[in-house]
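Interim report, section 4.2 (structural modelling).
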Amino acid sequence: MPAPGDLDPVIHTQARLRIMTTLTALPPGDRLTFPRLQSLLDATAGNLSTHLRRLEDAGYVAVTKGHIGRVPATHVEATRAGRRAFEDYVAQLAALLTPPAGTRGEPAPSKGTSA
Amino acid sequence: MRDDADRPRAAVMPDDDPPLDPAGSAALIAAQRARVAAETDVDGRLLFGVWGAAWLLGFGALWAVAGDRPALGWSPAAAGVLFAGLLVAAMVVTSVHVARRTSGVHGTSSLQGAMYGWAWFLGFVAVFALASGLTRAGAGAGVVQVAMTLVPPLLVGVLYMAGAAIWRDRAQFALGAWILVVTIVASFVGTPGMLAVMSLAGGGGMLAAAVAEAVRRRS
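Predicted structure of the assembly:
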């Protein structure tokens, strides 16, 4: 039986969970400009930057600086690893929220089996 | 005091908001997904609604002033101006809406959207070029009007069906197919009845699609 403590700590905070939810809601290959992401989250630029750096360090998001025309623009997208981590997080959440009926005696499959 | 406050992972997130429990996380994900959808999805209710209204009223006006015993006393030119105005208004609503919803989204889907947008634009430039080509070839006003009544819906139907294939949208596919069937029927009805067919079945079909989309979103 997974415990809440097993949830990925990089994602398991309000701010970063909302960032990952937003970025993974777009199809793979899509990225958001920093201001649009900010408006979808109602976040301050400083707060968003801090959390993005944490997610970038974990390899879950890619932040690219480029240009739209001549205007400098920062783009943010979920990486493949980030999408997988988010999927795992959601799956774990679902497992935590559905109490296994009548399986108390069985060994929990999700624990101790990974290398 | 939370009994899990001393678990090691708590230490790596001192930067944050109140701690999450699984139910809170699930609720947060659902709320944020709904918000992203509401703010980035192109809304079929609005687009089918404005185009349906433009066709219903525009083709309706053209029909009402046509024939031997017109239902309205307007000049055909006035009806034409009304229709053109409605189409321009629908185009403006569409452009503004799509631009707002997709603002700041780049990458694969914006490339798809841009290519699809160019297909509409060039397609309609070609339709108007056709009107000019027919006139130059000696076609009378009646022939040009038949072409301009049938070719635009033909293009709209084909583009809806193609768009449905891109975004795997069954409702849009059904609407595109319906518009093509209506166009085929209208071709055999002849003038001025085809204008009534395009108004009621074409515009009406789009309005029905807008209603269907509203129902789908509520469930």
